[in-house]
Structures
1.
Amino acid sequence: MFEDNRLVPVLYGEQNAHLHKIESAFGVKIVSRGNQLFIMGKGPAISNTRQILEALWSKIQQGQEVDTHTVDAAIRFLNERDGGENGNGAKLHEFTSGDISISTRKKKIQPRTPLQADYMKTMRGSNLVFGVGPAGTGKTYLAVAQAVAMMEGGEVERIILTRPAVEAGERIGFLPGEMKEKMDPYMRPLYDALHDTMAAEKLVKSIASEEIEIAPLAFMRGRTLNNAFIILDEAQNATTMQMLMFLTRLGESSRMVVTGDPSQTDLPKHEKSGLSEALEILSGDEEIGLVKFTDKDVVRHPLVSKIIKAYDAKRKKDK
């Protein structure tokens, strides 16, 4: 029984959409009678359903938003295994507590998968972090949000966002306009993340004052980047020399996050990805954070995860 009738509709979702999603996930039947829910199914499924409902109710009581994405997140956290006797639910307390989050002046962002929670914690604790994995796992978005939160909190003075100017065989010189106009299409995902985490007026001022700098990777050469949060996005398209050049830009009181998907490089076939090589060389260093996302962490449309699985299977078969 849920005592606050005003909050019950939030738990159930529009036309009981949240309950239907939980039913589908655990193979149970949920019947609502006002503020009471009756769960019918097998023992473990009933237990899992109860844990999910209690976790969502806890979030609602804390004043946190609960939508279909939140329900998906709760299910992912519950299914994360810890290897203990109970197996499931080891990470659900992280989802329920809400302690792991990124707060900017515009919004509060909470992890939607257990690995996103690990990624957030790693970015807070390490000066250099690699976030690698397939598209749609939030690697870049969360890194930008963390950068904005740290700049607003006075922990860094500026944000530097960069990408290699290599995309699907196209070359930047063929695009019309000045350098900024040439680079904008490549940098659009970074702009989108900034717009989602900062007020528009503040973002425009920050870019104009160079508190936020968005530039191609080649422009990093010869610089020492102090008191900054630096993000290299699409790092799989950096060459070995570019990656070494970028990593050695790290200055005092700075943080650096490198994101990319080693399986999606657009470099010429004979060129080895600087990201893949960096992971081979640096993955054993305890001071360097490494979070490897999988298709289970994709938070876009469910079809995206299926597409990634299908392509991965094809690559493995070809090898």
2.
Amino acid sequence: MLFNSFEFLFFLPIVFLLYWFVFRERHWQNFLVVVASYIFYGWWDWRFLLLIAMTSFFSFCSGLLLERFEGQRKKQKLVSAANIALNIAILGVFKYYNFFVENLDALLGALGWHLDWVTMNIILPVGISFYTFQALSYSIDVYQKKLPATHDIVEFFAYISFFPQLVAGPIERATNLLPQFQKQRTFDYALAVDGMRQMLWGFFKKMVIADNCATTVNVIWADYADQTGLVLWVCVTLFTFQIYCDFSGYSDIAIGSARLFGVNLMRNFNFPYFSRSIPEFWRRWHISFTTWFRDYIYFPLGGSRCDKWKVIRNVYIVWGISGLWHGANWTYVCWGLYHGTLLAIYNICGINTKYEHIVAYGKILPNLKETFQIIITFALTVIGFVIFRSETIGDAGQYLMGMFNSSLFDISGSMESLKGKHLVFNSVVIIMMLVIEWIQRKKQHALQLSGNGVLGRSSVLRFLIYFLLVMMIVIFAEKQSEFIYFQF
């Protein structure tokens, strides 16, 4: 079920009313969460309910076995390794089987051998990467004694399948989300209202900005070889805002929806396009993802406690895997290694990226140094998204060469190509979003209007913003496009 669908418009209030007015006791609320989540997920394809149920069940059992074998470290290692292997195997088959077979076939093709007969027509289950990593975090955290194993299978299934963040995150940790299903929840009016504000901002970013940018991006990208360098820059810049508004919009809706049920999900985006360096960007973009890889892969490899060259090795391992996590395509791997290279350069050069304060702290606008840092970081991010968006590495290379050839200065030809591409509208709504997020950059989300901020002091201005956002969402309500990260 899509957040931006009429089905969800009816689904959410019904679940909300049942949750607070019928199923008031914690155990029954958890049971409702599981049922509602399975309806939400099964709306797309009911066949994959068995897959998420199996992942949940085996991870739940692994926790019980880890507890049973307390003090028997070898047996605990065996249980933890078996659960990790099982979950990775399921993810590997559904997401990467054909990718590896096709690449092996290409490799063996030089010897006259072909493996076409072992490929399968496998449908990628929506959100499998997200809930698999969530299940893995539980097993690892129990093994590392960061939390006790749960004996309540319903609350565990609620943790894995909680519908607001089930399909595209945030990738929750058992240490944060599971305890919330283990205690009685009470309705918090202020929290619910703030959640609705965050949902409104998420719907605006997805339906008004991301989906309209997508229309322009798809048309230009389909014919990129015949476009000028300037048009290619405009196109990938629009894609950079499209993917941000699409993905962070999902996170805003997910976090806001969860607050309606008295549940706090972790923050997933922290205004990343105001970053002053690539390391800062990755501390602000898809936070649940980057911290998962940091805690469960980077730190076990030695993290930053090794000598410099081992640190760089660790960075490349983590970012190569994280690129592959995004999809079964070499472009994602190259995109991950591209960012790994940038992070390695920052490390080698000893550039300080741990800032004491947010950008333009205590000021209205950034200074010249900060402005330059933001522009450079954004440009590097844009270049990376060329690789991410391309179908093949060859396409990415041709697109990048097109961005930097002499046609970059063909202003008249570029303007002619951009006619009828909704460039003015897209620019206006992007600037509107950036202005509001800049003003609110100290807050948890752009429409957190409590306190003494510029937007918080004027009720007239607040309701004017609400009205404008709602009207724009209603205008574009007929579009029901999937979120980009559904494919991951």
